[in-house]
Design a protein that fits this description.
about 25% strand, alpha/beta, eight-stranded parallel beta barrel, about 425 residues, Lyase, Ornithine Decarboxylase, Chain A, domain 1
Length: about 425
């Protein structure tokens, strides 16, 4: 039995395009986007699904996101530029970031970005000043607040504890009020509401409900104190993806239904004027649609481990080294064989932490086998680097058995393209 991705044999893709290579099932991407749009819908709210492009961003992906009717968020000038070049509707872009430069803010204002999510008081002042250079425009703004809701996830991807670098804690209400007044009084800005995000890989729908209850209670107090009306709440992302059998991901329908139930209840209880809701799934759209294919090289036994070496590593998948992320892998042409060995799949980078799969189960591997790692569609390519002067692999979209490059692989010349040699000594 051989692994197929969107109707194409993985080993044939490896033979044709080389390894390492990222491979996306385009059908699955499309189905997931449509699913989110269908289930995040309510007669009481204007609901928008904004793809968190940091999970995986390229021209083709942004075109696909727009084609499927989703909005998108961008967190850097580079992501914004990619969306612009992809022809994305700028009215449907949310521009995020806790440390936006003046150049990035100018870029967003010039491009006509629909919503800028402001992170802090200082940024609000800079944005208000920069917006004076765009008379006649009205850029919508949201303020990122930190509700202090703990999502049970890895410390590196928790984003809502009171000391997080993101947003302003709701315990600092006067600072929030001052920031919002700056945004509301700026003649070329339109303050509309709040953004919050409580972390990633959230498996419990009640975590989103807890976020909603905390944010809406704060919104009620804020409105009563300031008289400013909140029309939009952006609840962020954090929807979980399946990486291994340990991951029990609730259905998207279940999570979205709970979000809408909690919002309906909270808005009614507090008498809020919120009429627009936004969520920002990224990982849960991209992760499970993606695979990374490697070629097995050497196999080495130590006193306590069997290592299976592959021709990639932490340069193309940083997550295991960064926060001990776990994956499952298979030998693409031997799917029906028992995973009878416990092995550690290691890459070729000069780091002991360059591990893709630690003490995982795998069929007995041989040099030349194609090893496929599942659920690498989020934060694989987007975190890739040239560490050890390794080229970043290319990316394929496969649809109905047909494969095409959407990002071509780097070659050795790409690695030194922007370098300048020293002048010759006289």
């Amino acid at each position: 039995m051989k692994l197929e991705i969107a109707g194409a044999e993985a080993s044939q893709l490896a033979a044709r395009f080389g390894t390492p290579v990222y491979v996306y099932d385009q059908n699955r991407l499309e189905e997931r986007m449509r699913q989110f749009r269908q289930v995040f819908s309510s007669p009481l709210f204007d609901c928008h699904v904004a793809y968190a492009s940091k999970a995986f961003c390229c021209l083709a992906m942004m075109q696909l996101v727009q084609r499927e009717g989703l909005w998108a968020d961008a967190v850097s000038g580079g992501e914004l530029y990619t969306a612009m070049k992809a022809g994305f509707d700028m009215n449907h872009i949310l521009f995020h970031g806790n440390s936006k430069t003046d150049a990035e803010l100018e870029m967003a204002l010039e491009a006509g970005v629909g919503t800028i999510v402001v992170d802090n008081l200082a940024e609000a002042g800079r944005l208000a000043f920069l917006s004076t250079g765009h008379p006649g425009s009205r850029t919508r703004t949201l303020l990122r607040i930190n509700p202090g809701v703990e999502a049970h996830t890895h410390a590196y991807i928790v984003t809502a504890d009171i000391d997080s670098k993101f947003g302003i804690s709701i315990t600092r209400s006067q600072e929030i009020i001052e920031t919002c007044r700056i945004l509301d009084e700026a003649p070329n800005l339109d303050f509309a509401g709040f953004h919050a995000h409580i972390g990633s890989q959230i498996f419990e729908p009640e975590a989103f409900a807890a976020e909603i209850y905390k944010v809406t209670a704060f919104t009620k107090e804020f409105q009563d104190h300031t008289g400013l009306q909140i029309s939009c709440l952006d609840l962020g992302g954090g929807f979980a993806a399946r990486y291994t059998d340990k991951d029990s991901c609730p259905p998207v329908e279940t999570v979205c239904r709970r979000i809408l139930e909690a919002m309906t209840e909270a808005v009614k209880r507090h008498g809020l004027s919120v009429r627009e809701l936004i969520i920002e799934p990224g990982r849960s759209i991209a992760a499970e649609a993606g695979w990374t294919l490697y070629t097995v090289g050497s196999i080495k036994d130590t006193e306590h481990r069997r290592y299976v070496f592959v021709d990639g590593g932490m340069n193309d998948n940083l997550r295991p080294a960064l926060y001990q992320a776990e994956y499952e892998a298979v030998l693409a042409d031997r799917m029906d064989e028992e995973k009878s060995e416990t092995v550690t799949v290691a890459g070729k980078c000069c780091e002991s932490g360059d591990i893709i799969l630690r003490d995982g189960r795998l069929q007995p591997a041989r040099p030349g086998d194609i090893l496929a790692v599942a659920s690498t569609g989020a934060y694989g390519q987007s975190m890739a680097s040239n560490y050890n002067k390794l080229p970043v692999p290319g990316t394929l979209f496969v649809k109905d058995g047909q494969a095409r490059w959407v990002i071509r692989p780097q070659d050795l010349e790409d690695l030194i393209r922007n370098e300048e040699p020293l002048p010759e000594e006289s």
